[in-house]
Fold this protein.
Amino acid sequence: MFLPFVGITVSSRESADFRNGIAKICATKVSAGVSTGIGDHEEKYEGTKDADVGDEQFEINDSRSFESMYQDMEQEGLQPVLNDYLYV
C-alpha cells in the first residue's frame, strides 16, 4: 500500500538460495552473469583490455551464469523478462 510502485532489485551479492526464494515473492529485478571489477564492462562489451583494471567492487555469492539463472527461474514457474534497451 505504501509506495506501491517501488522496485526491489536483488544483486548477485546474495546467495543463490536467498535469490531463488525472494524472486518468488517480491523481487522485481534480479541480476545474473555480472562483472564487478572496475572496468570489466568496458573490456567485455568494447573488446578493450586495460592493464590498470581495478579490483572487484564486492564479492559475488551467486555466480550462476545468465543462462543458468534463466533456467532456474523458469523451473520455479516464473517468466523471466529481459530488457534489451539502454537509457541515454
Notes: The chain has three helices and two strands.
